[in-house]
Structure formats: C-alpha cells, structure tokens
Amino acid sequence: MANPIHLEGTTLEGGGQLLRLATCLSALTSTPINITTIRGKRFGGGGLKAQHLTSVQWLGNASNARMSGVGLKSKEITFTPQSRIASGLEWRNGGDVHIKQNTPGSVNLVLQAVLPYILFANIGSADAKVKKKIRVKITGGTNVSNSPSCDYVEQVLAPMLSLIGIPPIETQIHSRGWSQGGARLGSVTYSITPLTKPLPAFQLFERGDVKSIRATIIAPKEAEQRFRDEVDVMFERREEGMFRSTQPDVQITFEDSMHEKRFYLLLVATTTTGVKLGRDWLYDHVVRVGKIDSIISSIVKKVFNDLIEELDHEGCADEYMRDQLVVFQALAVGKSNVYGGKRKEVLLEPSLHAKTAHWVAKELIDVHFDDDGGCEGIAFGADQDYNTAESVVVDETASVLKKLKVDKD
Ligand SMILES: Nc1ncnc2c1ncn2[C@@H]1O[C@H](COP(=O)(O)OP(=O)(O)OP(=O)(O)O)[C@@H](O)[C@H]1O
User: Which of this chain's residues are annotated to bind ATP (predicted)?
Assistant: First the structure.
C-alpha cells in the first residue's frame, strides 16, 4: 500500500472544505491520505465538527476505508480506502440513503462531500448501465450561515450542474433546519442520478444577459409586507444595473420562517445562456424587538449589492459556485473552463476557498488550474475498469468510449 498523501489542514482557507474535497477524491481514486491540523485556521481550535465527521464516516463506509483518528474534535486523520465503491451497499444500484446528524450541521456541506462521490463512483462498473435514482435524505440544518442553503442548492447549484452535463438533481425539503433563532433540525431529500459514463469537459465562457431574477424571502409572517415592499423598491431602484438589455422579469416568493429571529433572502439571476448567479444572507446579527424594519433594510441592501457585484464582473459563476465546480472540472474528460469574470479589466481572482480546492485537487490527482479558470481533468472513469464494462453498455456509450479512447491516445 502506497504511503498516504499528507495534507496540512491550515493550508490557504484552512477550513472544512479542504477535508471534504480531500476525502471525496481519496474515496473515488482509492488514494490514502493523512490530514493534519484539521480546520486549523478556524476559531476555537479546529478539529472535526459533527458535520465533517458525518461526511468522513459516510465516505469511509462507502469506500471501505481504514480510518484512524476519526472522531469529534479530531485534528488528524488517516483515511485509506480499500475499494472505489464497497460491494453490498444497498443504495448502489438506486435506492435510499439516509445520512443523519443530531445537530443542525449544514446538510449541504455534507452534500458537498458526498455528491461527487455518488455521481462518479459507479462509472465503469457493470451496474452503471442502468440509470437509477438514488434518493439521499440528509438530516441537519437546511439554512445555516456560511454554507449553501437548500434554496441555493435548488436554485443555483443543481441548475448549474445540469448546465455542465450532470443529470438533473431534484430537491425535496421536508422541514427546515436552522442555525439561527435557536438550533433546529430539518431534513431534505436530493434525488441524484449517478453518471453512467465519464463527464465530458464543459465550457462556461458566455455569461449572457440577465433574463430574470427571483427573490426568495423567508421571514416571520408579520414581516412579509415590509420585506416585499423593500424588495420591490430595491428592484425599481437597481433595475438598470441588473437588466441591461432585457425587459425586467422579477419573481418574489415568501415563506413564513415561523420564528421571530429567522430572516433570509436569496436573489438568483438567470441569464440568457442559462447561467445562474446567486447571493443570499441568513441574518446572523442580534435581532432586537422594534428594529425589524432596519434589519430588513440591511438584508435587502446587502444582498442586492452582492448580487450586483456578481453581475458586474460578467463571469459565469458566482463566488461560491466557482469553488464548488472545481471537483467537476478536475474529474471531467478534457479541459473544462469556467470564466470567473473581470473587474477593472483584470481577471477576478478565485476566492480562497476556490484556491484551496485547486490545491487539494493538485495534491491528490495532479490537476492544474490556470489563471483563466481552465483545468484539464483526469477523465475519471475512462480507465481500465470502464473499458472492461464496455461489452455490457449500450451502443451510444460504446461509441463515446471509442471516442474517449482516441482522445486519450
Ligand atoms: N452563502 C453561501 N451560498 C452558497 N455557498 C456558500 C455560501 N457560504 C459558503 N458557501 C460554500 O460553503 C463552503 C464552506 O466551506 P468551509 O470550509 O468554510 O466550510 P465549513 O465546513 O463550515 O468549515 P469551517 O467550519 O471550517 O469554516 C464553500 O464551498 C463555500 O463556497
């Protein structure tokens, strides 16, 4: 068995994303890893929180990994997968997976760790010829600060993944779980169709013009009218900056947050090329009685400003999407490009999260991201295993295989 690849957990962003991506790529490629000073740049000393532990254990189980040091608050783990996908997993061929957390750790950060694995792990196995949905139910927080909300996943992540060639992912929110207004558990089911063949390279070059914008407000019922009015006014005021060459098309939805301290706003712009850019804020400052109007104003102002900044750079992915696309670029067949946009004629730097994801991918699977947002992927799945499955796949796949083989040669 090869020596594990060592990853120092304080590198760049030095948070949980490094661990999630590393364990996911490790499980997929059966590469042993050792991570030290886990989440070493995080306040409170770092280590594994429940959300990270859940993801690592699930991936370890799925890839039959030998694990040491895997426990709450642990700062060092060694993760040694024994097979790409363990045999005998009930969900492997379509079915239900339930990933339970007892705290409102972000369900979507757990999803971030397991989604690429679920999508890619079965490519090349004889089972992969049948497209069957896997319903992944995750319990925890659906709306948690500093992580993608379920609304963002449904309205931005899933459509963007569809745009790059991933089969559509459906979202069913059973109940909301919050980090604000007192911790509360919720759950969501994502219906995921695993890839049956390698993911072709994708190109996100053309942002296009903004076609429509959707505002999702979740707040106490008594704040509905005030919130809607504030959003209306802001759309009127900022219309020109958002819809430059198209007729404004705006949709506003409201949901009762059922709690006086839970305020959330998400804005999602859809462009003429199908790109989605989103910005949101789950209000995380102190909520004082009598101050609701100013809270709503500050949420609306901030989220509109953030979205307009995203629109101004003309890139094809918002700041968060950019780091979440890294794993797909790294695993695709050929060179995928994600144009990140420009500010004052200068290419926009990837966020520290994105740079961290680039670094992890480089360390584990030796891919390189250039300054233009391009990366030659490793053609995950287009290998020996996949070729041996050729005889059982349908004609269309066989022709793709031949092409892949020519490209590779
Ligand atoms: N508002 C948001 N919308 C969409 N995605 C977000 C949002 N905020 C953060 N993210 C994404 O969530 C991930 C957060 O990674 P990070 O390492 O900070 O997470 P973490 O596990 O909570 O770690 P830590 O507790 O160590 O900060 C990144 O992929 C980031 O792009």
Answer: 112, 320-324
